[in-house]
Specification:
single chain, 6 helices, 0% strand
Length: 106
């Protein structure tokens, strides 16, 4: 997991806990987005054991989509279209539908 700095923590607070506001400026930061994905993925995996056994499938699906989001990025943290195309072509092997995979791209 990446080292979290104050900027990454504030990014997470603004994107997870605070209500949406009209953007004052573009706050895109590839590092902060990477840390946010890692944090959400880790939290989903930790929360899964406290969820009712019969309903863990939904959380596992969410965790898998976050994992795909993380792995669909290049070394600079940007979406890698080659990786996305490869993942789309292998959806049947992963037991997923195209709609399920596209959900994380938006």
């Amino acid at each position: 997991m990446a080292t979290i700095d104050l900027g990454a923590i504030l990014f997470q607070i603004h994107h997870v806990f605070l209500p949406p506001l009209l953007p004052q400026a573009d706050d895109t930061n590839v590092f902060h987005e990477k840390v946010l994905l890692e944090t959400v993925h880790s939290a989903l995996k930790a929360f899964q054991e406290y969820y009712p056994t019969g309903q863990r499938k939904e959380l596992a699906r969410c965790a898998r989509m976050i994992d795909f989001m993380e792995r669909s990025r290049d070394s600079n943290g940007l979406l890698d279209l080659g990786i996305v195309e490869e993942r789309i072509s292998n959806l049947g092997d992963l037991g997923q539908s195209f709609d399920e995979y596209c959900c994380f791209l938006n």
